[in-house]
Amino acid sequence: MSNKPRTIIEKIWDQHLVAENPGAPALIFIDLHLVHEVTSPQAFSGLRERGLKVRRPDLTFGTVDHSSPTHSFSLPIVDKVAETQINQFEKNCTEFGIPHFGYKHEKQGIVHVIGPEHGLTQPGMTVVCGDSHTATHGAFGALAFGIGTSQVEHVLATQCLLQQKSQTYEVRVDGKLKPGVSAKEIILALIAKIGIGGGTGCVFEFTGSAIRSLSMEERMTVCNMAIEAGARAGLIAPDETTFEFLKGRTYAPKGADWDAAVERWKQLPTDPGAVYDKTVTIDADALEPMITFGTNPGMGMPISGHIPDPASYSDPLERDSLTKALQYMNLEAGKPLTGQPVNVVFVGSCTNSRMSDLRAAASVLKGRKVAPGVRMMVVPGSQIIKRQAEAEGLDKVFKEAGADWREAGCSMCIAMNGDQLSPGEYSVSTSNRNFEGRQGKGGRTFLASPLTAAASAVMGKVTDVRSLS
Amino acid sequence: MAKFTTLEGKFVSMGIDNIDTDQIIPARFLKTISKAGLGDQLFYDWRYEADGSPKADFILNQEASKSKAVLLAGDNFGCGSSREHAPWALTQYGFRAVISTSFADIFKGNSLKNGLLPIVVPKEIQDWLFANPNSEVKIDLANQTLTIADGRTVTFPVDPFMKHCLLEGVDELGYILQQAPAIEAYEAKRVGSLNTLA
Asked: ipTM value of the model?
């Protein structure tokens, strides 16, 4: 290997090269494969058809999250198709020897929440999952990306993937976030700036003073939505914040192994003088609370902004796309979004369902009520988070405010499990996608932070949290 | 996987940028544990009324679309979720190729593994095709060319390995399994102590 300065992305890539044969993409080794019920059944069927085993169950972990109901465990699963999928997943994991948290397991949760929670996700790893928000794990300095079901089968069978090397894209965020402005704003501002295809073919490295001062939970929020800018992965070099979070977690190295691991991890950050293929900067000092107005995560703006006018776009396809989005959202160009009545508020998802997110939402709701006619759902990212929030009394804050406190899962982020909007309803949601119908057929989504979501729940309309006294 | 060599014919136009995989196949259809039936659910919420009857003005419901194997779409087709159900649904409907100015990474990879060819063309070619929706296109994978009805031929990029897989109708897993000695050698020198079974 040459002494050319390398980015963390290139270092992890180089460390995982298994084979580089002429005429084929590189074969890279996968350190951690996370599986869930939705994108794995056809992969397990493929293994059975070929008579293959799971090569490394010791590097594989499963949980149920997408299809599972978040209503009380005392109720039966109403959706028999979902129940079949959940049962099939548990059967597949058991048959192939994969450790997993099934439905109602005391540690079950969203796949991207439980990986870090148990120390499965570690710096320098390659992490994959049949889910595009796998980039979340990049917060630990891991190269983590979503894959399709064919690739789930490849990794189950071989622990390897054929991959093309991505371009490197530095997202530099310097400055200090103001009150009311969170990690969610950083990523929504980036996507609004470069567009939802702006990172296609790239892996982001988030750098800069604003990133360094984020907690691990906040870093996960930033990396989580890398895919919404088209990048398959986004990562943050590990530092003391990372090590402190990981130390003592179930699957983190212990004793002498821990010391050796930390020494290895300290070698990961990008070398001085390493060159990125692309770079963009975000000024953290200038960020305001962000919110989306349209039908993709790139259609976002500062909450004090006005909805853009399709007539101002020169490209006809772009103009048509915005026109179509505003028609779907039933919103008028040129108007502000603040004051727009909302029907539902959702706090949850792999983007914003961790303790700091729940605390942020509770800080707004404490002593206040959810506005009449508004339905608010709070869905913790895992059963462990649920119990911790209850130990802190957050569940009481939510319930006293009139919000619904649920079991853990993906819930209304993807609306597969019965938690969904009705046609025409507006939601402020802390999740990651505002695509047409994403939260239920005909539903209309405004993506925002937990603070903005809670403020909007209290006022019954899109609200700048800074306007609450 | 079905072989892909050449394809000639008319195309279905969907002149919208950023068509995401939630539109291609809405999430509620992902509760299946098989691949069957997804073609009927392709673009479900754009394609059907609330009562399940087909929307007459949606292009996939028009009789002429049903025999077409090429989809022409706006920029950044297939963005969003990693669901492979998207190319499964497109191929079950009958599509074998999608033409756009760009594709989302995961969708592109998933498509190539299912015999669905993503063809990236310059904007002026895309514009011409949208302006001539009843024209025919000719696709030649071996030469990586797309010929449009005004006589212009453009080349498109395809990963050489995936091109080989498509031309021969073989899938990647067979190749990766053959790399077992390299994988074993890598595992033997690998550093790392994660053991999810512990």
From this structure: 0.97
